[in-house]
């Protein structure tokens, strides 16, 4: 025994006596010290221990808080935190192989004894106290967060359990602190294929962050099937493309494609053959199999959401959080900024906002949002114009590779805009919500979330909606010499391939830039700062105390997770909105998520100060957003198949052939029309013009009386397309609602557990009532019953007859 007795390394931040552990740190500057006396006195009055340290590298002062365990336990009862029993018997995923688990999946971190609060629970309790502590004599002079707003405090943050990475990492797991265990097994890229230890995260960071990672984990598991299937679909497409009518019929013709030119100089006619690659890739992403894939995947969103609901209910029961623990009262910023009025109901002076003011604020905030969205859309238009101009300028030099080069440049520009606007609107949505000034914190949070998401939505998806539904339906016969119509379209084929390649590049570049930003932004900032201010280098590289090290980390705010979540939900949209155009998107999003998830973990665990844990019951308003995306995806996929893609045309061509119309020799003959170049002035001025050229469209030929007007098959094709959209949408919606109905929201283990809990609670209550009654010396209910007068013997008052009859009747029914 004695041989193994290693000294347990001491983790965490301690008072000077080396015994009392500090849980929270308040930072302030010397001058305001006199204002803090009341706060200190009030905290000490509650039994808090306080110790002030001078900063080593800054002129700030650090006030450390320690609370003895017995006081914390009393407070935990009062606030109902950390007392809920965690139930660990509810693991639905025991069937996965061990290589997908880390030691953290089985071990609920350092052992929890009853009445032993985790550091997370301790922080939650202290935070509750700090939120309501009085620091002055006026009634609204409460909460340390208020003091930060009034510049009496610099900042307040909870302390970690220790350093994330240090020399003790070499010791066996049982000597590590929780943060180090999380760094080793969770915030670690070599764990990319392992399951996420949500229980351990919940224990250390609280439910809010744990729900986020649980959702991401669920999302990733859901992506496995579409990824594999999507890759197979693409491989199938590549294998069959060459023989398909959609490719073969075009390239075997000696047709000239009607040039789309804007200047005489580069107006050259090419053979349809030279567009082989375009036809090929469009077929790969747009054929019968991809449509089948889209139909199968149309239930993916609903199934995923239902599986998440089940998982969520397990987690709720497991962690004992079934309600949001938010402030119920009005926000302090709200009370400050509004008028006060006497309320006859509560007989108190209450905060009051005239309705017209509320409306004005709303309108203002919404209009700023709309302006932002238009700016985002303008940026998209800017990128498109840049691409067109670049293309015109470069065609002479780059020839065939122009399109690829221009597309990549366009994607890089787009990613720059997405990232740049992203930085702006995170703050913007908070500022705008401040103007709106909602009364309750919950409304405030969801307002920030919706605005942030709306802007992110416009920012991320606008280019793709443009390609799919503007550029994609932009077909015209020669003769309309409008810059945009002539230049920005995907003729002679469809835009599906364009959409797919753009998606691929943007997803990849975004991740690349994101990774670089996370890994290199803070070090670069530091270097920049030192260069800028010519700061003297540290003379002695002595180690700073833990509180000061953590003070130097990036500050966290309430919306740290909101922006991460927004990013993930945007990824969800990339997958589900564009199934029909981009079967491989799920694979790349999966890769991206695996990386992003570890990166988020690393950020939270190592780069940021410890976030304030929050007791929430789920992912909140995101559930609604995800549901909305799922519905929207039905529409976008229907339109992608029906409008942007060409599968419906293959089908209607096949039907024509099968009915032996033989009106069309080939598929190319069906979808393309002939144009006499003499009929267009512009073409006449160009050298080497062929006599006829072909363009995409089902129009009459030059010989016909009604030259170039719409031909019969066009309407046939349009009808088929509309029918496809209608049928797809209705079928999917119906099927999804049936599925939502079939899959139960509560797994059996949760139902059993809830029933058991209810029963136990009832029994405990009855027991308590009985004990109370015995203590107060009252006769027991049943005893009294026995001592009642015997009505049948004519003692006492006569029973009401109606009751009697009713009882008899009931008995009769029962028999
Ligand atoms: C990450 O995991 C690997 C493999 O288990 C381990 O060797 C490494 O030390 C871990 N990294 C950190 C920072 O703990
Ligand atoms: C397609 O073939 C038919 C039948 O030979 C012919 O009348 C029609 O002009 C052709 N269309 C085109 C665009 O070549």
From TrEMBL:
The keyword Protease does not apply. It is found in: Cell membrane; Membrane. Residues 771-793 have a biased composition (Basic and acidic residues). It is a multi-pass membrane protein. Residues 771-796 are annotated as: Disordered. One of its GO terms (cellular component) is plasma membrane. Pfam families: Anoct_dimer, Anoctamin. Belongs to the anoctamin family. This is Anoctamin. The lineage of its organism: Eukaryota, Metazoa, Ecdysozoa, Arthropoda, Hexapoda.
